[in-house]
Amino acid sequence: MEKSDLLKLQNGSDIRGIALEGIADEHVNITEEACRKIGGAFALWLAKKTKKNVSELKVGVGRDSRISGPSLEAAIAQGLLCQGVKVVRCSMATTPAMFMSIVFDQTKFDGSVMITASHLPFNRNGVKFFDADGGLEHEDITAILEAAAGIDAEKASGADLSKCESFDLIEVYAAHLRNAICKGLSSSEQEKPLSGLKIVVDAGNGAGGFFAEKILAPLGCCIDGSQFLEPDGSFPNHIPNPENKAAMESIQKATVDSKADLGLIFDTDVDRMSAVLSDGSEVNRDAIIALVAAILAPDYPDSTIITDSVTSDRLTYFLEEVLHLHHLCYMRGYKNVINKQKELNAAGKVCPLAMETSGHGALLENYFLDDGAYLAVKMVVALAKAKKNGGSLKSLIEKLPPLVEEGEYRFKIKAEDFKSYGKSVLSEFKKRAEEKGYVVPENFEGVRLLFKGEDVKGWILLRMSLHDPVMPLNIEGSRKGDLAKLVKIAGELLEGFTELDVSVLK
């Protein structure tokens, strides 16, 4: 593979590509050859970062349930082996577990690799990397892919996989999470602290089924009604994505039909989650951030919660007026919110939670790691405490104003230099809004407009997509009828941009 082919695999701070044929006009570009090169390049990058000889390094490799996972995992392992690295194959794992493999006393890896494409379709796959500082940054991925071009993939293909060690990482990780629940409830595993609770889990046939079988059930929780726990990379039931409508409807139905206290749903590699309350109401997007913040608030008074840019003014009200915390509405991208969280905590400003509306949530108390299973642990502990006291999880967010009307509209940019064109659109959009007298608050991403008048109430956010030639427009109306008014305002502000397709507004 040429360097240009390898560099096309970069997706922010991850590597993503097409691993299987099967979808029209989508052809394989993340191959075993590419993974052997990438594995070898990561070995060299990690040796430089840790100032160790390559032969001193121990690296763990894991994967999610994707069909292409085993072959790509083996190829990454061969790339590492060919450089002299000690390789430990962890088989089925989760993205957060692979980071924790660097922390756990039983493993203490120098670095780790996870083969996953998160919630993307069955034909996709990718690679995530960790070292002791957490997930790698954008520039690290670029450096690894550039170095990968010089790695001899054919030589790596001869590496003897029998030299790899094997380790059941999920067993250790599950024990870690069970201990976190017991600690949170001041109990022991023998006491079965979750007895009397019923929680259903939907793993979407990804890697998250262990949460029901290895964490909840051993602690006494009834998991009857849980579904799609068996790993199956063809994803036969629904996409393993908490933001997917069909997936959320599936866990809502399972929760209500089972008369469960709580429903939990994970994405494929378990770095994201969402929940369903006993009455079937979904706890997603703004609500999941509000619930986690409410759980944390007593332990972190006057602290700051960091979110991505598309969170609602409703959430700001809840965080600041109800919980008496501070809300920093930052940028899209889970690495962006996590890095901001690290920066502010290092500067002495306590930020216990950085969370995207997608369900990526990182806790100060958990290595700044976006771990869907750990968020679920916090929720389970809160549920057990609430039920013991005759309360409910719902009561924690009952003062979060309800969503009334919302819309997301995605405009394709036809200009070849889409980034420059998008910036010019944002600049003019802001100028026009200010000339109209609209409220344009300081914002970290895109242009946000606030409307608090009698005629219309709500907000508008126009921004650039992180990677694609697209400008998403998010709108939320506070009352029935406000959405249509805000759409009209947005349409007027966007008139005349010939290289921006705003036809979806009509």
Describe the structure.
- The protein is α/β, with parallel strands linked by helices and 506 residues long.
- It has three domains: 3-167, Alpha-D-Glucose-1,6-Bisphosphate, subunit A, domain 3 (Alpha-D-Glucose-1,6-Bisphosphate, Chain A, domain 3); 172-397, Alpha-D-Glucose-1,6-Bisphosphate, Chain A, domain 3; 405-505, Alpha-D-phosphohexomutase, C-terminal domain (TATA-Binding Protein), CATH 3.30.310.
- It is 36% helix and 20% strand.
- The protein has 15 helices and 22 strands.
- It has helices spanning 3-7, 32-50, 69-82, 95-103, 138-148, 153-156, 169-184, 210-216, 245-257, 286-296, 313-322, 334-346, 372-388, 418-436, 482-493; strands at residues 10-11, 14-18, 58-63, 86-92, 111-115, 124-131, 134-135, 165-166, 199-202, 262-266, 273-277, 282-283, 304-307, 326-329, 353-355, 361-363, 369-370, 405-413, 447-452, 457-462, 470-477, 500-501.
- The strands form four sheets. Strands 1, 2, 3, 4, 5, 6, 7 and 8 form an eight-stranded mixed β-sheet that branches. The protein has a five-stranded mixed β-sheet with strand order 14-13-15-16-17, sandwiched between helices. It has a five-stranded antiparallel β-sheet with strand order 19-20-21-18-22, covered by helices on one side.
- The model has no long low-confidence stretch (mean pLDDT 96).
- InterPro entries: A-D-PHexomutase_a/b/a-I (IPR005844), A-D-PHexomutase_a/b/a-I/II/III (IPR016055), A-D-PHexomutase_a/b/a-II (IPR005845), A-D-PHexomutase_a/b/a-III (IPR005846), Alpha-D-phosphohexomutase_SF (IPR005841), Phosphoglucosamine_mutase (IPR050060).
- Pfam families: PGM_PMM_I (PF02878), PGM_PMM_II (PF02879), PGM_PMM_III (PF02880).
